[in-house]
Amino acid sequence: MKQESWHLSKSVPITFIVGIALQTMALVWYVSTLDASVKNNERDLLRQETRINTLEKTVQSQAVSLGRIDENIKAIRNLVEDMAERANRENNR
User: Fold this and answer.
1) What is the CB neighbour count within 10 angstroms for residue 47?
2) One digit per residue, pLDDT tens: the chain, 93 residues?
3) Per residue, what are the HEC states of 34-86?
4) End-to-end CA distance of the chain
């Protein structure tokens, strides 16, 4: 048995070969574009994650400050009510 080397049959049109080559190049181009998009999205996600962490810290700090302000307002309100009550008692004497 003699082994024949591989050869292209003349019944395969050249347009078929060109079409397969163009499809292969288009696939490579599409995959490289897709890869670039994925990398851009990954970079954007990391940037957004950093921004969100910073915002969370800021909001937490503002919540603590707001709590302190609220407590100070309550103390001032109680002080003013006590002062008004003393003034009413002195006026009633």
Assistant:
1) 10
2) 566 677 766 788 889 999 999 999 999 999 999 999 999 999 999 999 999 999 999 999 999 999 999 999 999 999 999 999 999 988 887
3) HHHHHHHHHHHHHHHHHHHHHHHHHHHHHHHHHHHHHHHHHHHHHHHHHHHHH
4) 132
Q: Tell how far CA 42 is from the center of its chain.
A: 9
Ranges assigned E (strand) in the chain: none
Q: Please report, for residues 8, 11, 31, 55, the alpha-carbon distance to residue 18 in angstroms, rounded to integers and kept in the order given.
A: 14, 15, 20, 55
- Report the alpha-carbon distance of residue 6 to residue 19 in Å, rounded: 21
Q: What is the pTM of this model?
A: 0.55
Residue 5 structure tokens:
């080397």
